[in-house]
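Z., the sequence and structure:
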Amino acid sequence: MNIYFDNASMNALQKGLDAVWLRQQVISNNIANNETPDFKSSEVVFEDLLNDVLERSYSTKKALNKAIERAQPVVSKKENTFNNANGNNVDLDKENIEFARAQLQYYYLVSSLTSQINRLKYAINGGN
């Protein structure tokens, strides 16, 4: 990674974007299988994992960056719930709400990443 982009906040934003992209894929798959008999929906867990990484103390910035790079979103099946008579557990209303939330997260993360890059460009160009 370029030295200008090698900092914890940029790495966390990039990881967040990866997780939200994966979440959108998982939610889309859940919605597409809304009427598939015995289909079990999935969810993506990432924010709590990243928070755990960020709450620890690190001896160097490099160690923090490595820990952020190792943080990976986890896809897990929701096995113990049943919403439909056919054994399917997709809650379409909830999935649509989660998809909208993921879209908002994506826009926020892209905006934050763009702001960071613009600040770096401003500093590199000497304030011009």
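The chain has a mean pLDDT of 90. The radius of gyration is 18 Å.

Let me know what you think.
H.
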